[in-house]
Amino acid sequence: MAASDTENGPLQGVKVLDLSRILAGPTCTQLLGDLGASILKIENPLTGGDDTRQWGPPYVPDANGQDSDLSAYFMAANRNKRSVAVDIASETGQAHIRRLGGMADIVLENFKPGGLAKYGLDYAGLSAINPAIIYCSISGYGQTGPNRDNPGYDLMAQGFGGIMSLTGAPDGVPSKVGVGIADVMCGMYAAVGLLAALRHRDQTGEGQYIDLSLVDSQIAWLINEGVSFLQTGQRPKRRGNAHASIMPYDVYETTDGHVILAVGNDSQFRRFAGFIGRPVLADDPRFETNSRRLGHRDDLDAILRPILRRFSIADVISGLQALKVPVGPVLTLDQLFDTGQVSAREMVIGMQAEPGQVRLLGNPLNFSKTPVRYRRPPPRFGADTDAVLNSPAPFDE
To answer: Which residues, 6 or more positions from 130, have their beta carbon under 8 angstroms from its beta carbon?
Structure first.
């Protein structure tokens, strides 16, 4: 639940200089901003700011009904920030960044490795001014290694990082996840790392440098499939929506759409088999345990799919929920955002932006003492430049 403006977030007083753009870095700094940190988003006046301002439609219309610079993509990761237009390639711009960096607790950037060193705005340059600064660099492949200079985009990270080889139909092409998940997860790792570094700084007074890459974070969340390969050396197969270690665990067709089954243990399978009118399946030597079901995956699938096509979505969900067998729908976004669950959890919020009311995704964190705060809507490009650069306390809100 969002707090009132009189309540402080858990990161109230933390000053963040955000030199990042697109998704990984902005995801991180939006999260920090939701938790109360003061975020100054530096945008290039020569390009119109963050690339994602132009990644539309849709855009929020301005007062004249024309497309503003608030695209849906930009708004997804840029609330609770102020936009400051600064050309860091200029001496004046560099002076502004040094001044702001000297006051900041955190600097986050996603330039190419070494890209800010020529301006003296890398960790070495800013830590010389502010030794307690915490400086995080996000790049495609990291600051070291043979690929360090390669461009880093979410799709390339998903491809190089292995997740695409696991995603998609068994007889189809490798597929990316439907959103920029490598970017988003990198932003989440960045937030965790920065909070840990803040803890260290508060205890010791020491700042430090964090080197984080899209590909490294992508590899880290290969989780069970990555570790399974490391143990066996066997390349995992693409299984579509099926699970490598549980059966049945998949999307199944019904008379009026699709349902998800996630039958996680043998007692659930026995109840499931009774529901579909085939209790003997639970005693079949091929299917009586999960490991045996996995060994006869295709046989079981060939039995289940034609049976489930005779049921409706509502029948499957209501019937299996009553038996405490995990089951669920595959919702489209219009169906999702119309549910009482989304409303109860406040996962859609409204904010008054400069062009008008906008609807955004809520923050999933629910604190009992320090609630998330939605203080500022996504900013128009450069809207806060003069106020910030001419202020003796630019991070104060």
So the answer is: 101, 102, 103, 104, 207
